[in-house]
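Team,

Forwarding the record for the chain on the shared tracking sheet. I've put the sequence and predicted structure together so nobody has to dig through attachments.
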Amino acid sequence: MAIERAHAILEQDERVRAAWLQGSFARGDADAWSDVDCHVAVADADFDTFAGEMHDVLERIAPVIGEIQVPLGVTRLLAATLETTEGLVRFDLAAERVGEASRPRQMQPVVLFDRDSVVDRFVVQPAATPEALRRRVQGLLSTFMFGAMWPVRLAGRGTHGTLLLNAISVVYSLIVPAILVRTRPEEAFREVLHVEHWLAPDDLARVNTLVAELHAAFAGVGEHRMDGDRLAMAHQHLTSMALRELRGACEATGVEWPVRSEAVYRAYYRRELGIDLHS
């Protein structure tokens, strides 16, 4: 198993003073498709050298098929896909200095080894604080209000493939996180490809129904034959749901709802697409 192999390889490296798991393997809800979030604390004097050799460290765990460097402030994160005996595994190796151990963490880790009691210095502070949730909702709301005219612009240009991409993006990057702010606030900060998993069954059913409607509305895109009325109706439902869920997220977090902006966009959709957005 990748975790067992990583444990053995990392423990052989004296520069690594502690190693632990975060994410789903720390929470205990990992499944066959879960990423391995492996974190290490490296002796301060060895950190730069270790950070420059993280690819080689991963290669000793299993062959690297692909990788990307992800900036995370003081942490160096190398996200990779590894070829293991069990198949392909997404493995994220995050390295930090031992001297950074006392900074806030989002969850209690599962410790693989700890030579210097590094983990004892952790300060666990969940991400979903009231202020963090307010900032999250403000970001979602700002993004929606900034981009709410895109359906009209893209439809007017006849770029229907991009219009479909935009519609699906609204579902998973705006609507689903807004739902999670109310129902699973600790999961509202996840990346787009991970948010759907945390919806309650009823909410997932509503989202899937909307996605199915969007899919059907674009059925003629391959033949450049679009049903304008059906497309407008799908965007009526999409935008109405976005407004409802964003308003609910604002109410849950105390963020002020932009009444004037909503009124402007309602008038805009009525004028340009001939649709009335639902409350």
